[in-house]
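Support reply, case 0932

Customer input (verbatim):
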Amino acid sequence: MIKKHTTLELFLTFLKIGALTFGGGYAMMPIMRKEVVETKSWATDDDILKILVISESTPGVLAVNSATFIGYKIAGFKGSLVATLGVVLPSFVIISLISLFIVEFKQLTLVSYAFYGIQAGVAILITRAALKLSKKIHFNLFSVTVLLASMGIALLTGFSVIYILLISAILGIIYGMIANIREVKNNVR
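Our regenerated output:
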């Protein structure tokens, strides 16, 4: 069941997500999912999966796109505005402050070591999110074939992931249309 919300609550939730996440959009997704699905009950896992696919397929930063789409789903245009502002504001403030002290900041050995640890933690967050979201995928021969082919092409060639997504989307449309035609023919008989 989708719960009620206020725009202030939506803004503060995404402000918290933006402030506490390191590593970009994929690292943000498990935290965003936990807040939006488990804690606030504003959306479902299916909603998050669809939003992730749309966010990855559209131009722009994944975290911002996801916040915008989730905010829109929850509270329309006003929701998309406050969620986007909330998720972007912490990074904007932090980067602005860091830019004032960048030379001194880069030379701090402890900062370098901290980022090594953060990178390892982000890899775990991304893997965990991928495993949770993969439970919602309807696996069949077609989806497994596209998944394995996409992974192989992405890992073994320099082919752009954007083109892989577009080709996968086109293949999905063709597959869906063929399945629909077969279903109609079977129902006619």
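We compared this against your earlier run and they match. Two observations from our side: The helical segments are 7-20, 25-39, 45-57, 62-100, 102-106, 109-134, 141-156, 161-188. The chain has two domains: 1-137, 138-189. Please reopen the case if you see a mismatch on your end.
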